[in-house]
């Protein structure tokens, strides 16, 4: 994974390094209806990278054999939503791991909102430039205001979901 490959460089930086993932609120836990999966992903202290990979592998296997419907996965843009669910979970696990090591690396995700892109076929409330501006503002937060393991909707930390 690119992030893992870059971690040694981030750790050597004299300043706090920042990993900021463009995600989506479609990848939040409130989109999951499988209680077991939701419980696994909500366990902030014990969730592991292997469990996140296992979740993604389970989804892919169910898609391959045609059994994914009715299994508690997000209902809207399911493949995209599951990819963002995995990204948010991995970011939370990575943030916890780096914080425990004392590394000065913040790991966060943000949703820029419904953005006009090729993927949305030109639909959306924001331009790509406006979405990028949100990312830049978050990336440039002063170190004292910089959280880790947080999901931002636009520029606001979401209290209902810490990723």
Automatic annotation (TrEMBL):
Keywords recorded for this protein, A-Z: NADP, Oxidoreductase
GO annotation, cellular component aspect: membrane
Domain of life: Eukaryota
GO molecular function per UniProt: oxidoreductase activity
Record has DNA-binding as a keyword: no
InterPro entries referenced in this protein's UniProt entry, alphabetically: NAD(P)-bd_dom_sf, SDR_fam
Matching Pfam families: adh_short
The keyword NADP appears for this protein: yes
Family designation: Belongs to the short-chain dehydrogenases/reductases (SDR) family.
The protein's name in its UniProt record: NAD-dependent epimerase/dehydratase domain-containing protein
Originating species: Oryza barthii
């Amino acid at each position: 994974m690119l992030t893992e490959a870059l971690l040694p460089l981030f750790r050597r930086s004299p300043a706090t390094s920042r990993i900021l993932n463009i995600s989506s609120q479609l990848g939040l836990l409130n989109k999951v209806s499988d209680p077991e999966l939701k419980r696994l992903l909500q366990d902030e202290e014990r969730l592991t990278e292997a469990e996140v990979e296992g979740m993604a592998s389970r989804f892919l296997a169910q898609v391959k054999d045609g059994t994914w419907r009715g299994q508690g996965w997000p209902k809207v843009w399911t493949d995209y939503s599951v990819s963002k669910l995995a990204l948010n979970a991995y970011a939370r696990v990575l943030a916890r791991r780096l914080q425990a090591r004392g590394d000065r690396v913040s790991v966060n995700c943000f949703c820029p909102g419904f953005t006009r892109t090729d993927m949305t076929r030109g639909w959306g409330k924001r331009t790509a430039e406006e979405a990028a501006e949100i990312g830049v503002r978050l990336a440039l937060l002063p170190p004292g205001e910089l959280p880790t393991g947080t999901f931002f909707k636009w520029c606001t930390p979401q209290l209902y979901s810490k990723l």
